[in-house]
Amino acid sequence: MATTSINSGESLSAKNSLCCSAWVLNREGCCIKTTDGKGRGVYASRVIPPQTVIEISPVLLFTRTEYEDHGRHTILDHYTYRWRDGRMALALGLGSLFNHSSHPNVSYMIDPAHECIRYTSTRTVNPGEELCIFYGHKLWFDPVGTAENLPPQVCLDQSDQSEFLDILAVDSKTDEVEPWDTGKPNDILEGEALPFIWKKLQIDEEEESMEDVRTMQAWAIDIPDPKYIATMLKWLRQSGLESDTLSHLKRIRKRDSISTLLLSISSSAPLLPTNINIGDPYQILVPCNPALTQTSLILKNTLWPTVFAPRRKWEPENWSIAKVQWARNAIKHILRNTAQTKSSDELPVIAHVPKPFEDESLLSQPFTAKDTRISTGHPLRHAAMNIIRTIADWRAKSSPTDLLPDSAKSATSPPDGSLGISEPSCNGTNYLLTGLTLFITHEPCIMCSMALLHSRVKEVFYIVPMPQTGGCGGSACLPALKGVNHRYSIAHWRSRDGSAAPAHLDEQIDV
User: Fold this and answer.
1) How far is 230 from 251, CA to CA, in rounded Å?
2) Is the pLDDT of residue 456 over 50?
3) How far apart, in whole angstroms, are the C-alpha atoms of residue 442 and residue 462?
4) Spatial separation of the C-alpha atoms in residues 448 and 454, rounded to whole Å
5) How far is 329 from 346, CA to CA, in rounded Å?
6) What's the predicted TM-score (pTM) here?
7) CA distance 99 to 160
8) CA dist list (Å): 45 to 28, 33, 218, 476
9) Which member of 33, 156, 172, 303 has the lowest number of beta carbons within 10 Å of its beta carbon?
10) Alpha helices of 240-382 — where are they, by DSSP H?
11) Distance between CA atoms of 319 and 326, rounded to whole angstroms?
């Protein structure tokens, strides 16, 4: 795709005349131009404000048989795409003339109920500027004249936050029908049937020499008398010290006549029951990861009894239709909240932690936070950081019993206090996001990704990738770094075939 060459000395009015002299096709001032190397495209003949509906294109639908027998053998094959129900679609009007850009200024939304596509400007568009959409990352052509080569456009200020809006358009009046809506709730979805793509973490080296075994500090305590083992295990389950970080290790190590209980990796020594005659906790080195091979298992067992798990620990679990619907509701929630930020000066970045799908007792209420860097004047008030802080404040105000699962709440201490839990330690004994899922509009930056790692989040779903600043696979992938003592799953929420494509977000912004 090529752009028309304009010398820097030419005036803006001369540049505008390239399109203003063309045939204006609709009330929003769209016109068609032909440029070398790119062919026809849609251009603005006047300034188009952000969030302006510039075109509604009806869609002509072909059955799969019609298209296979006839359509794909014609020029239509360059303009059609797959509709939600498997038919092939051709956008009429200006819909088939929008060219591709990796930095688009137009987003689009499918309206399956009315069989049309709505195109909306995502920022201020200057006269003479081409109107482009994003075709996706897997292109079937070599793009020419991408947006990086365009002259500078209108500068963004706080009254034009739409340029930051890099998410799917939301229309609550459109009743979207997904392929799995007719399935059974417990049916498992895999691969392309899922509305998101798991990011594969390039981790888990075999660690087949002692020098390669990664370790971390953990608290342990010796139990000389075996009669206290069951009591201490019961206390540990009720204490809130258990976390997924140690799930690849056995709880008890027996050497000679001494049994040792693995407690936690908290920053300070855990407070133990006062009525049990045991010693003080101490720190030891334990393996960070499960054993993937028999050789690795032998080496790691010299430090602490380790689980043998040839299957990668961080591989995502199976997702049922019911769980996908739970995730879709969370995505819709952050999109609705992002739309509400248009009336404010804030960056439209929203983070949301819903109640867990499997076990709502881990979090009794959902939490949502937005980016507040502009209103607070504080550079660290990112959406992800704000939601961690919000949950931390909530946990700090809650009683220790409120933070335990329901099963633990009912298991109260006996009257004699022999299993009494000492006053809770807020020093790392309850990680803020253990077992929880974060949904966020944009890929978190490196700072936020590390904060999520320290909070022991289970998984992160984002809509918009940030290739230059993201910490979940963009500029770096924090959970895949060697030496970290926690890993979380990462998924990129994608649009289905024929669904709306995201607009562009400034890649230099830390989200």
Assistant:
1) 12
2) yes
3) 5
4) 10
5) 23
6) 0.49
7) 24
8) 8, 11, 66, 41
9) 172
10) 294-301, 321-340, 373-376
11) 10
